[in-house]
Amino acid sequence: MTIVSNTPMPLAAEEQTDLGIQLAFGTASRPVTDFRERVRTLIDDRVSPLLPAAERERRFPREAVAAFGSAGLFHERWSGGIHGDLGRSVVLSEELGRAGLGGIGIGVGLHLEAATSLLRGFGTGPYAEAVLGLALAGESVCCVATSEQRVGSDLSAVETELTREGDHWRVRGDKWFVSPGAAADFALVLCRGDQGPAIVIVPRSGLTPVKRWTTTGMRSLETVRLRVDARVTDDAVLVPPGSGLAAVGQGLMYERLALAAQVLGALDLASVLAITHLKRRKQFGSPLYRHQALRLRVADLRARILVARRGLYATVAEISAGGAASLSEMAALKVTVARLGERVTSECAHIFGGRGYVEDQNPMERLWRDLKVNRLGGGSDEMMWELVAAGFRPDHQLYDRWVTG
């Protein structure tokens, strides 16, 4: 497997285009670029070297979480107000994608954005605060366990049980697709109490991987079926029964933003490699770039990437400035970027001809199969479209003005 440097775009260009991120940071471009450079250096030196073995062994490397945590990057992302620093979240996620880290990048994102956001937003007791501290320092890996065999997108039907046993709580059930489940020291488990869904912090001692799924892509994410059977104290009930679904929705907001940023970072890698290939590869005596059909095809893809990134940056800037985080708009962003990811990587692989489908020639084949799953992770296309549709508001006055009969 070829590991490609994660620097296809010069920083000077990013300084010119990171307007939305600058607004999210509330500062000039230089601190944005400094943070990006630090993230890139750490990924190049400590995380990218983990990828070949992680892909080959289908294991999520805990060292990746430790690297970001020990460098203080997790703390920086969650510094500040209620949303932490969304600018740093997006930059970090973009660079994970641009490095072509696939499952490692998604696993780091799930730890940082999905799990840590829940711990930070709802943890009030000493136990939850201690777990949060370990997560931010990179000393523990955390995941969120929601899906079940008969529960896909309808999380209100969760069957994992939360029952009272004397002065403790008992959590029992099977979670179906948990990432990175086998590497987790703590799982935030969505379960059902007597008053509705709750979220409970379950330590590794109460978690048993019963099956490692052989996934098409994201091989280094280590998605597993996880058996949960634990006795925990009151401090471990992160979100009480009845409030679990609302809390999961908050975690999904950060997860979807980070996922969109990772996909766009990966599309920078794919499209710049394709553009460079067009310039360097010669056919019929001239570079492929001279063939109008090819360069215009990539120009269309690149334009869509740029517009999607502007949408992401504008959303981050609005939320950071105190605007409401619209579920409908967030779903629209996620589903649009996820579907774009599948299309762009497929087309970029095509630009490389036969070598685009060979694993040890370039990363295109792996990027395509890795990004495919983003149309399901964080919410399927259909669920995202339902959320978009839920935000529809008719204008009867306008309709009557323009439509007759």
Q: Give me the secondary-structure category.
A: alpha+beta
Number of helices: 15
**What's the mean pLDDT score?**
90
- Mass-distribution shape: globular
Strand content: 5-15%
Mind telling me the C-alpha Rg?
A: 22 Å
Helicity level? 40-55%
The protein's oligomeric status is single chain
Strand order of the largest sheet: 1-4-5-8
Largest sheet: 4 strands, mixed
Structure summarized in a few sentences:
The protein has 15 helices and 10 strands. By secondary structure, it is of the alpha+beta class.
Please tell me about this protein's structure.
This protein has a four-stranded mixed beta sheet, with helices on one face. A four-stranded antiparallel beta sheet has the order 2-3-7-6, with no helix packed on it. It contains 15 helices and ten strands. The N and C termini lie far apart (63 Å). With 405 residues, it is an alpha+beta fold.
Q: Can you give keywords for this protein?
A:
4-stranded mixed β-sheet, 4-stranded antiparallel β-sheet, 405 residues, alpha+beta, globular, 15 helices, disordered N terminus, single chain
SSE map:
Blueprint: H1 11-17, H2 19-25, H3 29-47, H4 51-57, H5 62-70, H6 73-77, H7 86-98, H8 103-122, H9 126-137, E1 142-145, E2 161-165, E3 168-178, E4 186-193, E5 196-203, E6 207-212, E7 224-232, E8 237-239, H10 244-280, E9 282-283, E10 286-287, H11 292-320, H12 327-351, H13 364-372, H14 381-390, H15 396-402
Parallel strand pairs: 1-4
Antiparallel strand pairs: 2-3, 3-7, 4-5, 5-8, 6-7, 9-10
Helix pairs in contact: 1-3, 2-7, 2-11, 3-5, 3-7, 7-8, 7-10, 8-9, 8-10, 10-11, 10-12, 11-12, 12-13, 12-14
